[in-house]
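Ex. 9. Protein: thioredoxin-dependent peroxiredoxin.
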Amino acid sequence: MIAENTKAPAFTLPDSDGKMVSLSEFIGKKVLLIFYPGDDTPVCTAQLCDYRNNVTEFTKRGIVVLGISSDSVESHKKFGEKHQLPFTLLSDTKKSTAKAYDALGFLGMSQRAYVMIDELGEVVLSYSDLLPITYQPMRDLLAKIDAA
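Predicted C-alpha cells for thioredoxin-dependent peroxiredoxin:
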C-alpha cells in the first residue's frame, strides 16, 4: 500500500454515470478511497453495504467516500442502485489508480483496502487486508480515522 505521509497520486476516473471525477476536485475535503475487488461479489457487497450503513459516521467527520474497482461504469451503476450506495463508485478498468496507490494484489485484482487523504492531499492512513475474503471492521476504521 501507498505510504502514509506522502502526496496522494492524482487520478481522474469515470463514475457510475460516466462523469469524470478527479481527486483534485476534493482539495479542502477529506477523502476516503475504498479499493475493492469487484461489484456484486459476496464479501465486496457486505463491505460496501457496511460503508453505506455507516455513511453518516463519515459525513459527520467531513469525509467524502469514493469506492474504486476495475469494474465497468455499467457494472457500478447496477451495483450502486441495487444496494442503494450513497457514495460515488469509480471505474478503474485500466487499474492505473490501483497501481498508483499500490493497491493491486498478486493476481492483478484490487486489494480490499482503503486510503484516507486529508484536505491538503496527503495520505494520512492506508490499510490493506491480507486476506481478500475479509475486511476490517468499521469500528476499527473509524477509530483509526479519529486518531489520525
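Check your answer against this statement. The longest helix spans residues 42-53.
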